[in-house]
Description:
By secondary structure, the chain is of the alpha+beta class. It is 51% helix and 15% strand.
Amino acid sequence: MSPNSDNIVHDLHQEFESLLSYVENAKKETADQVERHLFERLLAMGYQLMWLFFELRSQEYLRTTVKNQQGDEVPYFADRKRDYFSIFGKLPFERPYFYQSGVGGTTPLDAELSLGSDCYSDLVRELTEYLGVDVTYEKVTDLFANILGQPLAKNAVQGMVTEDAGDVVAFYEQKPAPRPEEEGQILVVQADGKGVPMVRETPAPAKVRLSKGDKRTKKKEAIVTGIYTIDPTLRTPQEVLASIFHKEKRSAGQEQVSNRVRPQHKQLWATLTGKDTALQRLAKQVASRDGAHIQHRVALTDGAEALQKRVLDYCPGFTLILDFIHANEYLWEAANCLFSEKDPQRDAWVEARTLQILSGHTDQVIAKFRTLAQAPKTRKAQREQLTKTANYFERNLAYMAYHRYLAQGWPIASGVIEGACRHVVKDRFELSGMRWSQTGAEHLLHLRVVAINGDWHDYHQFRKCQRHQRLYNLPFPQQPSLEEGALVPQSRRSGKIMRFDSAAARCSRRQPVNPQRQAA
């Protein structure tokens, strides 16, 4: 080792011994004080260890000639410095640079270490982005400053999200479909839209008070799609009615345990690039997951005609179902125009109409509403709402055969996509004061669905491999397996750098501290 690395090792030994002494003699400190003290000093040790790692790797590299990506021989020129922003802090280090006039330069150690094009480590990137998909970028920088003591600019967070979201589409295109034996019998797709507040290209004139129809922000619709499989759950209209109106029979003091089967391999997606782009991607997912194991194909949407039409176009062979919760909301709107909120007849009226719709008698509900709308005593506002509800049901009548859907055990509510619109879009993109560019929102949407789909670790492994291939045109360095690590000679695993063993063993055996070290 060089004098510099020798000094680092010496300092690390001393610091470790000092930490042991501190713990052994922490007689009056609280647990919180000790934990915070250790955390701060372990971060400093981590900085020294990373510095030692880079020093050793740089020293080991031969400074003769290397071949660049084109196969040209390039001689050693000088050592060049670069920065590495780790979880422990920003580290400057030098590594050999090879250069030939007319050929160019290369730093092959960067490839061996799989360094990115900027200074930020992959651990910093992943932690930053994992926080950033849930909280504001300002909050991420605050957390880094307050917990790790590291300055991190908001622009740096945005840049990491932008760069690292670039492989999300490719990741999902190569991800294999679930095995048929892990899937349910019903293939379900759902789609809906949710507005994202956007930055105005031309700022709106400032107003003290908004006029009717004015909005302080404009929104662009993010299309959210979901796909999953599920096994049939047979239910009667009466059972669904009971679940909606909370009439399930429960034992005294006990909650009823739901025996409802759960969605399998649910995967969400969200994009600001339009309905067609979103549904083209959904169609590819359908093609990859369809097969002989799928017995039924169901699509659930709200009553938006443009969305319904595209779903039918991109998912042929699927039975389109109007989300029952949306249909039921129209019933409540009709009830609110006929009864006051405190009128005891209101809930009973909605319950009766709900059972009719669930039982396949929506045509009777439509006829009743039209009759009520034409009654002489019906007020104008009531007539308009009753007509609106009747028209909505009539237009969607082909998608409201709930009695048949229930008899086959199909889902009739789009709760998965409704929850996704709230969780994927609203909970992050409509935080107070949020305004987004389309590019910034799209990248964050992609990383957010990676996290929500439970693919975070797998995605970042894929991303690192893709980045390595782009930067160095080489396969990603493979880590040694546990078996390979066990084959390393004992002499290499117990060298000078590993001499913390004796101190750690002494600590674990609870032996008395060395008096000389204690005096020191």
